[in-house]
Amino acid sequence: MLPTDTRLTIPPLAGLCDFEAAQRPGLSVEECVAWHKRNHYVLRRLFELLTARITAEPQYELKTAFSYHAYLCAEHVTALRTRVSEMREPPLGLEEIPHPALQLLCDEVLCAPTTPTLLIGVYDVLIPELIASFEAYLATTNPLVDAPSVRVARFALLELRDMAEFGRIALVADASRIRPIDAGRVGHDLTAWRTLLSNCLLAAGGLSGRQSQQSIELKPMFSAKPFEYDPVPKRDARFHDSYNAGVNPEAFLYDERFAPQDKVLMLFYKRLREIDVPEMMASIIHQTPGKPWKFYRDMSRQLWDEARHAMLGEVGFVSQGLDWSKIPINFTWSLNLNTQLTPQERHAVLFFIEQGLMPRNGKRFEWEVAQASGVPLATLFQDFDWADEVLHSQIGREWYVPDFTNLIAALDYGDRCWSKVMSHWRRYLEQGQTQHHNWWPELYTTACTIRGTTPDPTTLEFKTTYEEVRADLKAIEGDVES
Asked: Is the domain of 121 the same as that of 197?
């Protein structure tokens, strides 16, 4: 039988807390907003510094992790901005620096001169401080009156703790490199640098600002020289012959002579090669100041999606028993766009390509190839890849197209910008940076061996390059080798 008094069994106060917690003195609205602004500031700076380091970070796993973690920070920045806007009338002061010491703290991490020092600053200082700040907020605020903030903090903690765990493992994996390399390369005692970071927090009254602010002289170390964004993509040792443009996978995909099962190999290659999109998009985000916050949040989402697509390609090769590090993963698209075009021109090329993927011969075609291949994983990957590109097209229509009179003008400008890019196919060959080796026969033969099939002679002979045809199969014109 049901108990007569259900009040004895149903949690009170919608399950938010008990009556004791609901009577907690908590924080005033002004105190809540001040605390939110400090967490917001450090999360936004974390988003910015992780994004700024994606392109020049060689380690593939860190390049993709920075892409992901920057996006998570952007989402939590957005949540905090929304919450503050619910509690105060504009102007909200969200672009203000809460304390100069917090600015120096984030500047120092941004300017960390090596990957190991960057990992320390991000995963052993900033993220743990954010976790501690959100935990303290939950323990201090009244959980009933401030329930919306509690929800924001709980979601932030969920993902910040995941980030911290990734960082903990990455730091352990990198421990052998931190001390012997950094002591000589960075020109500073890392212990002294850690002390500076701690002193920044003491001077600011902690991240929350609710501790007593200590009077400490703070002298910049790494940030004494302003950060300089490096637009040249860096790759780790698994990536070799990165200037190689000796295989045009788009030409293979759209050639009806070849079987869908073989085209899947090119699909996996195209996905993995998409690591060059975060390398390029990071430059747009970093070098385009003054936009509304939503621009950065949306672009960060697209950047993360592209990094995720690269990992889909990685998984695809693993599923086929193939070692992707045997294949040259070209990086000249991000290299050339980053070094030859302005941020707006790069965005134009990005949008032009995204729009070109929307018709039937774009992402739908790739999905149909995957379906016809009989490889379920490829079908799943292309299904979600297609969905992501629909979103990316919408992002471009919101943030790029309004700069033009209409969509056609926006597309035409993107096409012209892409045509301006010098592929330097022959220059890279003449300078000895690559021989544009045709790696397809080796990959295809290995895949056939694993499958237990005989290579098709016509498929084996594929040798179309990027010398005269770009990825949309449009002829390359005016590629002057100067």
From this structure: yes
Q: What is the pLDDT of residue 181?
A: 44
Residues 218 and 253 in one domain: no
For 296, the domain range is 249-460
Chain segment 392-448, per-residue pLDDT in tens: 999 999 999 999 999 999 999 999 999 999 999 999 999 999 999 999 999 999 999
Confirm if 190 and 183 have CB atoms less than 8 A apart: yes
Instruction: Tell me: do 32 and 152 sit in the same domain.
Output: yes
CB neighbour list of residue 242: distance below 8 Å, 6 or more residues apart: 235, 328, 329, 330, 331, 332, 434
Dihedral sign, Cα of residue 258, residue 264, residue 265, residue 268: positive
CATH assignment of the domain containing 108: 1.20.1260
Both 169 and 280 in one domain: the answer is no
Instruction: Check: pTM over 0.85? Answer yes or no.
Output: yes
Per residue in 413-428, pLDDT (tens digit) is 999 999 999 999 999 9
What domain count does the chain have?
A: 2
Dump pLDDT digits (tens) for 317-327.
Answer: 999 999 999 99
Do 163 and 291 fall within a single domain? no
Cβ atoms 375, 312 nearer than 8 A: no
Q: Is residue 1 part of a domain?
A: no
Is position 467 within any domain? Answer: no
Cβ 37 vs Cβ 93: under 8 Å: yes
pLDDT digits (tens, 9 = 90+) for 264-278: 999 999 999 999 999
Cβ proximity of 131 and 164 under 8 Å: yes
Type of residue found at 48: E
Give residue for tokens 């790069």: 346
| pLDDT value at residue 1 | 45
Average pLDDT of the chain is 93
User: Exposed/middle/buried for 41, CB within 10 Å: 0-12, 13-18, 19+?
Assistant: buried
Could you identify the residue written with the tokens 């995204």? 354
